[in-house]
Amino acid sequence: MTWVTITTNKLYQNSGNGGISNMAKKVTGEDGKTYKVKKPFYKRIWFWVLAVIVVAGIGSSLGGGGDKESTSSADTSEKTEQSSSKSKEKSSSSKKVDVPAEYKSALAKAKSYASMMNMSKQGVYDQLTSEAGEQFSAEAAQYAIDNVKADWNKNALEKAKSYATTMDMSKQSVQEQLVSSSGEKFTQEEANYAMGKVKADWKKNALAKAKSYQEDMSMSPDAIRDQLTSSSGEKFTSEEAEYAIQHLND
């Protein structure tokens, strides 16, 4: 075995522009021979290039894995929530409310009165509980009112049309009949809706009433006029009553 005594001799080369560049390191062994000292691998450029590539690859792999894990976790969470929601829906639908037979009967009657007779909400309730009507208990009637599906505004409008076209009533009389406690018992808002939508020829109605008073009761034109405009009578406007008198003999 040859022992080498390292004596560092640096060789320098003139760079040509007045500077000196470091060329290489050499050592002289005990045998008198000169040896070049190679740079350690970790000081070589290729080592660091390779290290950067490896580190970048590891970082990319870890980052991608994190995204996949995050996406997978989100998907799992969403599926769990959907499953839980479906379970709750099934649980709710499986619970059947035990409705008394009387309540069901009251609801059936309420639907009939609301859809076929165009009654008001209060009118339906009163009819259900009336001694001269259906005689349901207050609880059964209230259940029916709470669960019946009806358009009360539409019902008020249908009633207004009926009073205006078949009974030749004045606009004011129709309005009062809709909200009267002894009449249809619609709310003021429902009555206002109806009167804003109803199509009627109020002058024609006044004339029809005037002819009725003349033919059936043999009343004079002046008496007819008073009856048409009276607040306790037909409640037509003065213009509508005057139109009726002028066309009474047409």
What topology does this entry show?
Elements: E1 9-14, E2 20-28, E3 34-36, H1 45-94, H2 101-116, H3 121-129, H4 138-147, H5 152-166, H6 171-179, H7 188-197, H8 202-217, H9 221-229, H10 238-246
Strand pairing plus helix content: what structural class? mainly alpha
Instruction: Report the sheet with the most strands, covering strand number, pairing sense and barrel closure.
Output: 3 strands, antiparallel
Please tell me how large the radius of gyration is: 51 Å
**Oligomeric state:** single chain
In round numbers, the mean pLDDT is 82
* Percent of residues in helices: 55-70%
Q: What string gives the helices and strands in order?
A: EEEHHHHHHHHHH
Note the gap between the termini: 149 Å
Strand order of the largest sheet: 1-2-3
Question: What's the shape?
Answer: elongated
Strand content: 5-15%
Number of helices: 10
Poorly predicted regions are 1-23
How many E-type strands? 3
Transmembrane segments: 45-63
Protein name: Putative host cell surface-exposed lipoprotein Ltp-like HTH region domain-containing protein
Keywords: Membrane, Transmembrane, Transmembrane helix
Region (Disordered): 62-96, 211-250
Quick recap of the structure?
By secondary structure, the protein is mainly alpha-helical. Helices cover 61% and strands 7% of the residues.
